[in-house]
Design goal:
The chain is mostly helical and 71 residues long. It has four helices and two strands, in the order ααββαα. It starts with a helix and ends with a helix.
């Protein structure tokens, strides 16, 4: 039914909402601490790229900041 209606999957919608939330955080449109955002100065073609924080456990790898920075 999703294909017939041309709707994005739940996984795609979640990824899109994570990216939107990251945009709001980066541009200080929401009050969320940005302690996990370490800018990378030598990013080719991108104004703002961030270092993915080290995640020892899989549950932390899939948490908001590490997962969204990868996106």
């Amino acid at each position: 039914m999703l294909h017939q209606l041309q709707w994005p999957t739940l996984q795609e919608r979640r990824a899109q909402m994570k990216v939107v939330m990251m945009y709001l955080i980066v541009h200080n449109l929401v009050d969320v601490p940005t302690t996990y955002l370490i800018p990378i100065s030598s990013a080719r073609g991108h104004e703002t790229c961030y270092l993915v924080p080290f995640a020892r456990t899989e549950s932390y790898q899939k948490s908001f900041f590490p997962d969204t920075i990868r996106l």
